[in-house]
Every structure is written in structure tokens, then in C-alpha cells.
Amino acid sequence: MAFKVTGDEQGEWSVIRVAGELDLVTSPVMRQRVHDVVAEGRHDLVLDLSDVFFCDSSGVGVLIAARRLIRSCRGRLRLILPAGGAVEGSHVNRVLGALGVRRLFDVYPDLAAAVDEEPLSA
């Protein structure tokens, strides 16, 4: 699967969907997309990582930088990370947990839950 970053709007939320490997080569593309969205004045962001099947430390760094940027704008950042065994995308959830940074993010199982106003986790 080739790396792909797409975006759209869901109400007041900007949604960035990422597919493929999030690594040293591809993470700058995602970083730029996040910066572009914020530059447009959109500070409520959902990163859909459901189709990311590999994430290295540079990918985690982009997620942490996105969190820092959104917080500096007093915005909200939510991640979509499916939980569980063989579900594609759960790799990112495991990596964030292993590095001890999972607690920094509001994580949701799907887009409908992520754009709902009631947070599932803090």
C-alpha cells in the first residue's frame, strides 16, 4: 500500500486520513498537512490512523508535534485508532502505548465517535 494523506471536513472538525507506513520518509507529508490545516484557521483536528499499518519514532514525533501545535492554538486533537488484535491500524495504538505516550491523546475507535462532542478518554 502506498502512503496516502487525504483530508475533508466533518462539521467543525478537519479530518486527515492517513494510510500506509508513517515513517521517516512519509511523516513530513503528514506534518505539512497538519500545518496547512492549522494555517487555514482550523484548530479542531481528527487524525484518522485506521489504515496506518506501521509507525516508527518519527511518526510518533509528528503526532506529538501535532498535539503541541493544536494545543498552542487552543484547539482539539483526536486520533482514530482501532483497538484489538488483527484490526489494521492497531499497530499505532500499540506503539504509542509501548512508548508511554498513548495517554497524551484522545483516542476514538471510529470517525463517528471522534466527531461526537463527548470525549471518550482524556
From TrEMBL:
Coiled coil regions in record: none
InterPro entries: Anti-sigma_ant (IPR003658), STAS_dom (IPR002645), STAS_dom_sf (IPR036513)
SUPFAM superfamilies documented for this protein: SpoIIaa-like
CDD domains: STAS_anti-anti-sigma_factors (cd07043)
Span of domain STAS: 15-118
Protein family according to the UniProt entry: Belongs to the anti-sigma-factor antagonist family.
PANTHER family: ANTI-SIGMA FACTOR ANTAGONIST TM_1081-RELATED, ANTI-SIGMA FACTOR ANTAGONIST TM_1081-RELATED-RELATED
Protein name: Anti-sigma factor antagonist
